Structure formats: structure tokens, C-alpha cells
Automatic annotation (TrEMBL):
SUPFAM superfamilies noted in UniProt: ARM repeat
Protein name: Condensin complex subunit 1
Renumbered residue ranges of the record's region Disordered: 56-90, 127-168, 497-601
The organism of origin for this protein: Clytia hemisphaerica
Biased composition (Basic and acidic residues): 150-161, 553-569
Length: 601
């Protein structure tokens, strides 16, 4: 076949950058027009296997040697031949072979799941029509014979006739055909003993060893081929799903991450139960450093969300953050998603509380200014009275779970954005116990005054009176909270000053502590006031002086008692504070009264 030969001839033309798209289009034409496309692609795969693992290049132009060449073309035991210039396959050739093998696997899946299954259903419908036609002919027989035949065969055809009327028989046959196709895809295309199963281990090996295979084109083609093989078999998909998500997160090439995001979007449609546990990893690409990866992620996730293929709750806040992305295309795609969700009944209303909670979370949220811009866009779609009333009640109860002032402001700001009716405002009044203690914050109070100013526009006088009462209540709680905060600040200031003064006192006490008591064998030079003569024998003045001092100091005991009292007053606990020097001075130097001092003058 001409297309087959063109694919094989262009495989080794390394400078031709159009070979991959040309070969994919050629394979698509083969599967659409050929009576037996599996036979043609089988021959093609055999030639690709020979190119990948053994044979020489298929064109006249020899391949250039590359340092990243893959797969030896000759056995290590065989001696090298002078005619063989290359002993390895060029990485671009390997990339092309894996690309075409992955595309053939994908087209064969489509061929079985769509073309063959549709043909089986068409043939089954023809058989059913033939049965109905024969049944009508048999029903035109005379009444007597009809009654006899009916009486004779009623017990035999009772169940089958009931199944035919209810369509159970046809449905069971269709299910059996679909199950037959599914088993073929599971066990006989990319797994088992067949041609495509030869290429799957090659793709897995390259993806698992990025340090050994550094060629960007090769790694990208291997990852794409692996994901296409996973589309065919759920067993093969489950086996290599972790590897694909590792590539999605850790590959240093943005093109590889983008390709993985696209193929994982297809896998969500093919095997949703397998991909569902990995949903957070898909949303994580919305924060990718590459603009192209973020664009791809927003497009894929928007498509999956609008088709109900992904759970929205819990992670939709990541899409809300994209509303303020620096890239205009990403922001516009995110806006279109929320606009479409607003048209789908209660879809946007159901996710609004979760978005508010996650974006206002101080640990994982966004800046307050960004939060307000995002919520202004989202809450503008909440226009139904019942939705607004229910959302007001939910947000009021969220005040009880707040941890920071920022969360108070965020919730009150969202309340101010909602449309208010008489029922909605009554719901806000009924839940005043949830937020009355937060009204001391000026921003929170400002948001509630905005709500009140909106509500005053109603024409009913009774309702205006109710609004005025609510306004006075809000103002009272605000003033009370401000006063309590002021008292609290004063008390905190007093406590702070007291603590500072106490610390100062402690520091002074530490500074007045004396040095350690000298040991008995140590002599303090400062206490030796009497000059000693080297010729005189040593004396023991301490004992003698102590006796004399004792005799003399008894006269002025009252003076000492007075000084002790003064020391007890100066120190807490009535303890007398005297240094070791002072004690020794008292022992060595006698204390004289005023009369005795006159004798020495």
C-alpha cells in the first residue's frame, strides 16, 4: 500500500519535521477506508519493530551518530562489521516509532469500540427486524389454527415474548457485544502476546529513567505513547497511573506536562473511577510555573467540570484563583467556566460556600484584595431569592468557626454582595448571635451598614421600621464592642506597665546581691587595717577583738536594734540584708556611743 511505504520511507529522514503529523493522518485514513486496517497496521508494526531493535535505516541517507542513541542494532556477541556505520538507533527514530505505535493503539481502540461495535449492533437490529417480520406473518393464520398453535406453544414462548415486549432481550445482546469488545481491549491489544505489547515496555523504560534518556523529543514521545496505551486497557492504566502523574508533576519540560494533562483528561472520560483519587493532582497544575501548562490545565478542567467528569467541591477554589491570573486567556477561561456553572441550576450556589471558606483560610487562601475581586465576580450570579436566603444563613453560621479578624471581614463582605429581600434580611436578623461579637471591627460594621442601606429601599413601611430596629441593634453592638476593646487595651497597658516595673525591681535586687562568702582560709586585704611587724610573733586578733567588741557593744545595744529594724523595713519578708564585709567590720571595729567619741576627739 502506498501510504504504508511512505510512512516507512520517511521514518529515517531526520530533518523532516512533518513525519509525525503525516503518519498520524495516514493511519487515520487507513482505519477509515480499509476493509481490514488491522492487517495493514500489523505489517507496519512489524517493520517498526525491525527498525527499533534490529534492521538498518530504510532510506539511502545514513543516520548520524548521536550521543543519546538508544537500543543496540546488533548482538554484543557478533563482531562489528565495517559496513555498519551505526550500532544504535537514533533517539528521533525511537521517538517516531513510539509515536506511531501509540497512535495505532488509540485508533485500534476507536475502531473496535466504535466501528466494530456499531456494526455488531446494526447486524443485531437487522436480526430483530427479521424476527418481528416473521412474527407478523405467523399472526395472520386462521383463528382456529392460531388458537391451537398458541395453546401448544404458550408455555414455551411465554418468557421470550415478555422479554421481546420489554426490550430486555435486545439490551442483553447489546451488553454481551459490548462486554466482548471490552475484553478484547483489556487483554489482546497492549497486553499479552501481540505486536503493540512490544512497544509498551520500551515507553515505560524511557519514562522511568529520565536521567538515562535526556533527549526531550524522546521523553515526550515516550510519555505520550504510554498514556495512549493506557487508554486501551484499564488494567494497564491502573498499573502505570502513578508513573504518569509523577511525570505530570516532576518533568522539567513544559511540553511533557502539557501532553500529560491532555491525555489524563481523556483518561477521565475513559476510566473515571481510576482517575478520581488523583483529582487533586490535576488541579495542582493550575499553579504550574509554566503559562502553557496552566492554559492547558484550565481548558481541560473546564471541559471535565462542565461534563460532570470531576468532583467540583473541595478543589473548585483553585479555578476561582485563576480569575485573577496574570495571563488574560487563563482568566477569561475561568470566567467562562463560572458563567456556565451559573446557568446549570444550583451548581454555582452549591460551591460558593466552599470557595469562600477556602479562599479566606489564612493558611491556604489569597490576599484580601484578590479575595474581594474574585467574590464580586462569582456572587453576582446569585440572584435567586431562595439561593440568597440559604447562603446568608450558611455564611452567618460560618462566623462561629472563624479564627482571625480577616475571616470576619471576608464573610461580612460576601454578605454585603448578596441581594436582599424581606425574608433574606429576617434570616440575617435571626442569626445575629453568630456575629454580634464581631461587630466591633470597623470593616465588619461597615459591611453591615451597607446591607442596611440596601434594605431601606423597600417600600413597605413595616419593613422599614424593622430595618431601623436592626440598624440600632447593630450600632449598639458595635459601640459596646468598641468600648470593651478600649477597656481591654487599657487593662493590657496597665498589666504591661506592672510587668515592666516588676522586672525592673527584680533587676535591682539582682544588682544588690553581694559576692560569695569568703572561705575561712582566705584573707581579705581590705579588712587588714593594722600594720604588722615582721619581728613580732603572730597574734590572733580576731578572737580577742571579738570579746572586747562584745563587751563594749552591749552598751549600745539599742542602736543596733534600731538599725536592725530599719533593715527589716527596707527588705521584703523582714529579713536583714547585710553584706559579709559589714558583718566583719562590726566584729573588728567597736561601736562607740556619742559620749565615748568625745573622749577621742
Amino acid at each position: 500500500m502506498q501510504l504504508e511505504s511512505m510512512i516507512l520511507e520517511g521514518l529515517a529522514q531526520l530533518n523532516d519535521m512533518t513525519w509525525v503529523p503525516f503518519s498520524e493522518d495516514a493511519i487515520s485514513v487507513i482505519y477509515q477506508l480499509a476493509e481490514q486496517p488491522d492487517v495493514i497496521t500489523g505489517r507496519l508494526l512489524k517493520a517498526l519493530v525491525q527498525t527499533l531493535f534490529g534492521g538498518p535505516p530504510t532510506n539511502d541517507q545514513p543516520l548520524q551518530q548521536d550521543e543519546d542513541d538508544v537500543f543496540p542494532k546488533q548482538s554484543s556477541q557478533a563482531p562489528p562489521s565495517s559496513s555498519q556505520q551505526n550500532n544504535k538507533t537514533h533517539p528521533r527514530v525511537v521517538a517516531r516509532v513510539l509515536s506511531i505505535a501509540g497512535y495505532i493503539a488509540l485508533m485500534h481502540l476507536y475502531h473496535l469500540d466504535v466501528s466494530i461495535l456499531s456494526e455488531l449492533k446494526r447486524r443485531h437490529n437487522i436480526q430483530e427486524e427479521e424476527k418481528e417480520r416473521k412474527g407478523k406473518k405467523n399472526g395472520k393464520t386462521p383463528g382456529g389454527s392460531r388458537r391451537k398453535s398458541g395453546a401448544r406453544d404458550s408455555s414455551i414462548h411465554k418468557d421470550s415474548g415478555l422479554d421481546d415486549e420489554m426490550g430486555v432481550g435486545g439490551a442483553a445482546a447489546e451488553d454481551a457485544e459490548a462486554e466482548y469488545i471490552r475484553k478484547i481491549c483489556e487483554r489482546e491489544i497492549v497486553t499479552g502476546d501481540n505486536l503493540l505489547s512490544v512497544f509498551a515496555p520500551v515507553a515505560v523504560m524511557i519514562c522511568k529513567n529520565p536521567s538515562a534518556y535526556k533527549n526531550t523529543e524522546l521523553r515526550s514521545s515516550a510519555a505520550l505513547a504510554l498514556s495512549r496505551f493506557m487508554m486501551v486497557s484499564s488494567e494497564f492504566c491502573d498499573q502505570h497511573l502513578q508513573l504518569v502523574f509523577t511525570i505530570l508533576e516532576k518533568s522539567e519540560f513544559a511540553i511533557v506536562r502539557s501532553n500529560m494533562m491532555i491525555t489524563l483528561g481523556d483518561l477521565c472520560f475513559r476510566f473515571p473511577n481510576l482517575i478520581e483519587p488523583w483529582t487533586p493532582n490535576l488541579y495542582a497544575r493550575l499553579r504550574d510555573e509554566s503559562v502553557e501548562v496552566r492554559k492547558t490545565a484550565v481548558t481541560i478542567l473546564t471541559h471535565l467540570i462542565l461534563n460532570d467528569m470531576l468532583k467540583v467541591k473541595g478543589l473548585i477554589s483553585e479555578m476561582a484563583i485563576c480569575l485573577e491570573d496574570k495571563e488574560d486567556k487563563i482568566a477569561s477561561s475561568a470566567k467562562s467556566l463560572f458563567a456556565e456553572l451559573a446557568r446549570k441550576g444550583n451548581a454555582l450556589y452549591n460551591i460558593a460556600p466552599d470557595i469562600i471558606s477556602r479562599l479566606s483560610d489564612p493558611d491556604t487562601g489569597v490576599d484580601e484584595s484578590v479575595f474581594r475581586i474574585i467574590m464580586k465576580y462569582i456572587l453576582q450570579f446569585i440572584q435567586k431569592d431562595k439561593q440568597a436566603e440559604s447562603l446568608v444563613e450558611k455564611l452567618c453560621h460560618r462566623f462561629r468557626a472563624t479564627r482571625t479578624d480577616r475571616q470576619w471581614r471576608d464573610l461580612s463582605f460576601c454578605l454585603s454582595l448578596l441581594p436582599y429581600t424581606e425574608k433574606t434580611l429576617k434570616k440575617l436578623m435571626e442569626n445575629i448571635r453568630c456575629y454580634h461579637d464581631k461587630l466591633s471591627d470597623d470593616d465588619v460594621y461597615s459591611c453591615f451598614t451597607t446591607i442596611i442601606s440596601k434594605s431601606k429601599k423597600f417600600s413597605k413601611q413595616e419593613f422599614k421600621t424593622l430595618v431601623e430596629e436592626f440598624e440600632s441593634t447593630i450600632e449598639g453592638y458595635h459601640n459596646k464592642g468598641v468600648e470593651e476593646n478600649a477597656d481591654f487595651d487599657k487593662a493590657a497597658k496597665v498589666l504591661s506597665q506592672a510587668a515592666t516595673q516588676e522586672n525592673t525591681t527584680k533587676n535591682r535586687k539582682k544588682s544588690t546581691r553581694t559576692a560569695r562568702k569568703p572561705k575561712p582560709w582566705e584573707v581579705d586585704d581590705s579588712e587588714e587595717d593594722v600594720e604588722t611587724n615582721d619581728n613580732e610573733p603572730p597574734k590572733h586578733p580576731s578572737r580577742k577583738s571579738t570579746r572586747n567588741v562584745t563587751k563594749k557593744t552591749t552598751k549600745d545595744k539599742s542602736d543596733d536594734d534600731f538599725s536592725d529594724k530599719e533593715n527589716r523595713k527596707a527588705l521584703p519578708g523582714g529579713k536583714r540584708k547585710t553584706t559579709e564585709k559589714k558583718r566583719k567590720t562590726v566584729r573588728l571595729n567597736p561601736v562607740f556611743s556619742s559620749d565615748e567619741e568625745d573622749l577621742f576627739t
